[in-house]
Amino acid sequence: MSVATDVSAVDPDQRASLLNRMIVRPEIGAALGAVLVFVFFSVITDKFLSPLGVATWLDDASTLGIMAVAVSLLMIGGEFDLSAGVMTASTALVTALLSVEAGWNVWPALLVSLLFALAVGALNGWLVMRTELPSFIVTLGTFLALQGVNLGVTRLITGTVQVSGMRSASGYTSAGWVFASTTDIGDARIQASVVWWIVLTAVATLVLMRTRFGNWVFAVGGALPSARAVGVPAMRTKIVLFMTTAFAGWVVGSCNILRFASVQANQGVGLEFQYIIAAVVGGCLLTGGFGSVVGAAIGALIFGMARQGIVFARWDSDWFMLFLGVLLLAAVLVNNAFKKRAERVRR
């Protein structure tokens, strides 16, 4: 009898402790949302859970997820990058122009496009920190500049706004294996971008939660003056975060150019808002200092499931924009509520 009494006395505390641990996780709302979307489309469509269906919505979510992971790190650090979408096109164009028009091997072309991306990311971070202008304004300027360069340079060299013919470039086969190969799992064909998405999510989560740099990210996003006061290298941290976003843009651009063998100069324009929405859905606050890399990856997964679920259900694709709007508003409200509850728990 005494044992039963002791267990009943402990159980409520254990349940409360478990609930508190769940509440302080920013991605819990996104995880619940993903389950609801998954169950909903699994019930109303036949193709959603088929091997082809699963491969399709994973493929849809993968490139968005790669970018959302990097954008979530930047948002936790208190900044935005509106040039993230156009960066995917810029890096793909650099690779394609060097490989197709200049006759380079694909691997050196990829290296140059990577250096280009990292340089732009570093410039964005340096300008934000040196000028103290909002990153929204700085990266909007970068977005416009890159879009103009993409269109102008591509038309100047090729006479069009498209570069194609990558499959004939030297080194395409080996580079394509890294960025655009497929893996058959049963009847499902999984794209390399899905593997990149999973790996980058795991690495980013490890860095954010288990390293000193991850602590710096939370610090500069939560209270920049306080972070500087305790010795956090704020400028270095934010520059690295902008470079991380640019690196993710390079990965997505490389996956796209090597998979489809062509690129449009205006590709990726407008996707930067989807990256931000996926990060917000995943638990990131617009004010910085709070969020989750895993949550951002789940947010991208919700996008992929919803977008392809709508197709499988044979609904008008215009309804997806309504879904995005409702999802964003709901995520902001839920995230704010979870943050307040988490702050009370931590006290």
UniProtKB/TrEMBL annotation:
GO terms for cellular component: plasma membrane. The chain crosses the membrane at residues 28-45, 57-76, 107-129, 135-157, 194-219, 239-261, 273-306, 318-338. It is found in: Cell membrane. Its main location: membrane. It is a multi-pass membrane protein. One of its GO terms (molecular function) is transmembrane transporter activity. It comes from the Bacteria. Keywords: Cell inner membrane, Cell membrane, Membrane, Sugar transport, Transmembrane, Transmembrane helix, Transport. Part of the binding-protein-dependent transport system for D-xylose. Probably responsible for the translocation of the substrate across the membrane. This is Xylose transport system permease protein XylH. The lineage of its organism: Bacteria, Bacillati, Actinomycetota, Actinomycetes, Mycobacteriales.
